[in-house]
C-alpha cells in the first residue's frame, strides 16, 4: 500500500491553497479605498518596499531590517495578505512573502511608483547584504 509522505502532503496542500487563492482572486475586485488605507502605514510601506526588492522575504528578515518585533511585523503582513497584496508560502518552518503577481493593473502601477521612490532604507548597501541571515 502506498502511503503519502509529509512532502507529498505539503505539495498537495500548497497546490490546493494556490488554487483557492486564484479562485478567490478571479472573483474578487480589490477595493481601492482599502488598498490605499493599507498603504497609509509607514511600516506596511517599508515591508512592501523590501518585498519588491527581494521578491521573497521571510518574517525574520523583515524583523531584522525594520528593527520591529515579530508579532508587529506579522500583524502588518496579515493585513497585506488579507487584501491579497502579498502572497505567502510556507517552506519548512519559514513563511515567505511575495508580491501578488495577479494584482489589478492600477494597484501594480501604484506599487511600481512606490518602489521607484528614493528611499534611504533601500539605498542602504546593508539591506541586501544582511537580509536572509536567519532563514537559511
Explained architecture:
It contains eight helices and three strands, in the order H-H-H-E-H-H-E-E-H-H-H. It has a single domain, classed as Orthogonal Bundle (Arc Repressor Mutant, subunit A), CATH 1.10.10.10. Strands 1-3-2 form a three-stranded antiparallel beta sheet. With 136 residues, the chain is mainly alpha-helical. It has helices at residues 6-26, 32-38, 42-54, 59-66, 70-82, 105-115, 120-123, 125-130, and strands spanning 57-58, 86-91, 94-99. The protein is 61% helix and 10% strand. The longest helix is centred in the first third of the chain and has 21 residues, at 6-26. The mean pLDDT is 78. InterPro entries: ArsR-like_HTH, HTH_ArsR_DNA-bd_dom, HTH_MetalResp_TranReg, WH-like_DNA-bd_sf, WH_DNA-bd_sf. Keywords: Arsenical resistance, DNA-binding, Transcription, Transcription regulation. GO terms for molecular function: DNA binding; DNA-binding transcription factor activity.
Features:
136 residues; mainly alpha; Arc Repressor Mutant, subunit A; three-stranded antiparallel beta sheet; 8 helices; 3 strands; Operon regulator ArsR; WH-like_DNA-bd_sf; HTH_ArsR_DNA-bd_dom
Amino acid at each position: 500500500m502506498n502511503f503519502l509522505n509529509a512532502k507529498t502532503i505539503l505539495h498537495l496542500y500548497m497546490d490546493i491553497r494556490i488554487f483557492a487563492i486564484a479562485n478567490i482572486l478571479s472573483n474578487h475586485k480589490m477595493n481601492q479605498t482599502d488598498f490605499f488605507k493599507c498603504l497609509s502605514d509607514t511600516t506596511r510601506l517599508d515591508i512592501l518596499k523590501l518585498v519588491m526588492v527581494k521578491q521573497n522575504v521571510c518574517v525574520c528578515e523583515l524583523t531584522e531590517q525594520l528593527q520591529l518585533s515579530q508579532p508587529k511585523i506579522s500583524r502588518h503582513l496579515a493585513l497585506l495578505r488579507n487584501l491579497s497584496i502579498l502572497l505567502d508560502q510556507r517552506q519548512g518552518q519559514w513563511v515567505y512573502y511575495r508580491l501578488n503577481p495577479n494584482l489589478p493593473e492600477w494597484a501594480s502601477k501604484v506599487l511600481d511608483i512606490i518602489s521607484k521612490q528614493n528611499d534611504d532604507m533601500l539605498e542602504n548597501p546593508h539591506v541586501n547584504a544582511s537580509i536572509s541571515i536567519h532563514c537559511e
